[in-house]
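Our consortium's second objective concerns turning raw sequence data into structural hypotheses that experimental partners can test. To show how far this objective has progressed, the report includes one record in full. It was chosen at random from the queue rather than selected for favorable results. The single chain below, 294 residues long, was entered without modification.
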Amino acid sequence: VTVFMLLCSVNFAVYFLLLTRRLKQALQSDELRFFLCALLGAVALIFWNLLPTYDAAGHALRDTWFQVASVVSTSGFSTADFAQWPVLSQLVLIGLMFLGGCAGSTAGGIKCSRILLMLRCAGRSLSRLSHPRATKVVKLDGKAVDEDTLNTVFVFFCLFFLLLGGGCLLVCLDGFDLTTSFTAALTCLSNVGPGLGAVGPMENFAAFSPLSKVVLSLAMLIGRLEIFPMLPRHLAEALSSHAEKNAPPVKYPFFAEFSSRFFVIFVKSFGNFRKILEILLQIPFLMLKLVCYP
């Protein structure tokens, strides 16, 4: 089961390359190598952290591999109550909930390719602090990534964390602790399944209020469709382009890459977000109407 969960977390384009006997090109995938490094690093760290709490090293390794594969592939399975694991192991699993699998796989989450692009974009910005006249491009698999794609990735990150924060705030109205509320919103938005606290692998979401269940259901739907298909067409186009040419010049390139893009895009799209908010507020009432008046 662990093997198949991990296989389904890999970009299916890699399997196409393998089927067409292009093994070297498949192994040169930056996303695949980043995914494997993150996976092995998480397994090693959790195994080292869990080893003192288990009687047998084999048992600890088996539980570690299964839970890491389950979280990163967003399969939702569990063979151990990782809500009772040490805090370090729980933090690593939360990081994997954000990460998810590769783009073009069955996994949810932010996806490895987006995180890799953001890390390289951040590295370019930090490099410009010491070499402001240098011209550098962000590359993936040896090919330059255009600025519009980087803008789209950045907007995806902003929307993801805005939705995560909003969902967490609404779930907090039920009076649960921060761990439960945050991981409930995160696990639904990333389509992972179990979270921590009262939504751990041995618990469920039955204790939440109807409002929280509607919010978490919307989070699962938005996370599965990866946000952009849920936006109106004209807003999606505005978010994926024009950010670079409209961004005002700033002294420090780090803020030019990150902060300025956020304000330029979202301030100009305020009216569209108001319409989206109105639509989202209507959904719970429509669902209640369907339930009360079938």
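The partners drew two points from this record. Strands lie at 139-140, 143-144. The longest helix spans residues 147-172. Both points have been shared with the crystallography group to help prioritize constructs.
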